[in-house]
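Dear H.,

Thanks for agreeing to be a second pair of eyes. The structure we're designing against is below in C-alpha cell form, covering all 301 positions.
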C-alpha cells in the first residue's frame, strides 16, 4: 500500500513542476499559409560542454519533403524535438511561414504538426479509439477512411470485433507493422499541415518497412514533411536530403546527386545495401530446408 502511495505522490510532484518551455505572455496562435519551415543558423546543446547542432540552415518548401540522415549522434532527432518545441534553440531561429516558434503558442504549433515516431504509443483501448485520438470527435466514416488510407482498414475489418478490438497495453496485441499503420491512420485523421516522420520504420524488419512505405508516401503527399531516417531506402524520393555529421550539414542534394558525389551518403548507402542483401540471403536460407545441400554442404544424417 505504501508503495502505491509513493507512486501517486511522485506523480503529483511531477505535475507540480514548472515546464521548461513556456509560452511568452505575448505569444500568438501560429498562422499557417504554406507552410514553409526554415532553420536559420540553428545552434543547440543539451549540455553547454557538448554542442549538438553547430549552425544548421535549411528550408522545407510548402508541400515538399526534406529528409535528414546521418550517423548515430549526428543530431537528427534533435531537429524534430526543436521543431516540435520540446526545447528552444540556443542560437539562431526556427520559423514557420516567417513566425519564430518562440513567439507562437505551443498548442497551436503542435496542432499544426503530425508526428509518426519510431516507438508508437497506443492506449490500452480499442483500435478505433487509438485512431480517433488523432482528432477526437471524428465520425466513424472519417476514422474508417483514415484507416483505409493507412492500409490497415482491411486488417481491422477482418477482426471479429473490428474497430472495437482491444490493442492491449502499449498495443502488445498488434505487430510492429500494425501498430505503425494505426499511428499513420491517426496522423491522417488529424490532417496536419506539417508532418514529421521520426525514424518511423527503423524498428521494423525490411519487408514490413517496404509494405508500409506506400502508406507513409500517401500521408506525406502535398504536406510539408520532414523525414528523420536511419534507413536510406525510405528517403530516396525526398525532394532534398540533408546529411548531418557532427552537428553540421556535410552534404545535401537528391538521392542520385548524393550517390554521384561518392561521399558520406554514398558510403552509408553501400553499407546498408550490403546489410540488406545479407539479411535477405539469411531469410532465403532459413526458408529453404535444402539450402545447405544445394550449396555443396553435406546433409544431416
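And this is the sequence the design step returned. I haven't edited it by hand at all.
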Amino acid at each position: 500500500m505504501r508503495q502505491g502511495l509513493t507512486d501517486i505522490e511522485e506523480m503529483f510532484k511531477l505535475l507540480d513542476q514548472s515546464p521548461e518551455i513556456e509560452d511568452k505572455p505575448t505569444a500568438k496562435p501560429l498562422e499557417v499559409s504554406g507552410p514553409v519551415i526554415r532553420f536559420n543558423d540553428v545552434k543547440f546543446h543539451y549540455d553547454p560542454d557538448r554542442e549538438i547542432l553547430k549552425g544548421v540552415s535549411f528550408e522545407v518548401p510548402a508541400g515538399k519533403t526534406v529528409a535528414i540522415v546521418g550517423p548515430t549522434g549526428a543530431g537528427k532527432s534533435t531537429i524534430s524535438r526543436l521543431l516540435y518545441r520540446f526545447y528552444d534553440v540556443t542560437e539562431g531561429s526556427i520559423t514557420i511561414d516567417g513566425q519564430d516558434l518562440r513567439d507562437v503558442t505551443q498548442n497551436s504549433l503542435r496542432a499544426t504538426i503530425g508526428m509518426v515516431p519510431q516507438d508508437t504509443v497506443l492506449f490500452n483501448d480499442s483500435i478505433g479509439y487509438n485512431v480517433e485520438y488523432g482528432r477526437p470527435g471524428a465520425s466513424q466514416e472519417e476514422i474508417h477512411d483514415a484507416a483505409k488510407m493507412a492500409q490497415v482498414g482491411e486488417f481491422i475489418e477482418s477482426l471479429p470485433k473490428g474497430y472495437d478490438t482491444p490493442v492491449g497495453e502499449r498495443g502488445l496485441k498488434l505487430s510492429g507493422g500494425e501498430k505503425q499503420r494505426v499511428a499513420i491512420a491517426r496522423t491522417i485523421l488529424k490532417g496536419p499541415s506539417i508532418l514529421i516522420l521520426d525514424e518511423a520504420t527503423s524498428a521494423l524488419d525490411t519487408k514490413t518497412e517496404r509494405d508500409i512505405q506506400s502508406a507513409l508516401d500517401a500521408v506525406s503527399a502535398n504536406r510539408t514533411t520532414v523525414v528523420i531516417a536511419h534507413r536510406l531506402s525510405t528517403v530516396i524520393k525526398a525532394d532534398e536530403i540533408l546529411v548531418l555529421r557532427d552537428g553540421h550539414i556535410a552534404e545535401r542534394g537528391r538521392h542520385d546527386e548524393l550517390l554521384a558525389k561518392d561521399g558520406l551518403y554514398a558510403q552509408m548507402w553501400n553499407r546498408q545495401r550490403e546489410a540488406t542483401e545479407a539479411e535477405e540471403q539469411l531469410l532465403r536460407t532459413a526458408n529453404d530446408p535444402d539450402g545447405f545441400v544445394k550449396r555443396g554442404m553435406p546433409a544431416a544424417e
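Two observations from my side: The chain has a mean pLDDT of 88. Residues 205 and 247 are 28 Å apart (CA to CA).

Warmly,
E.
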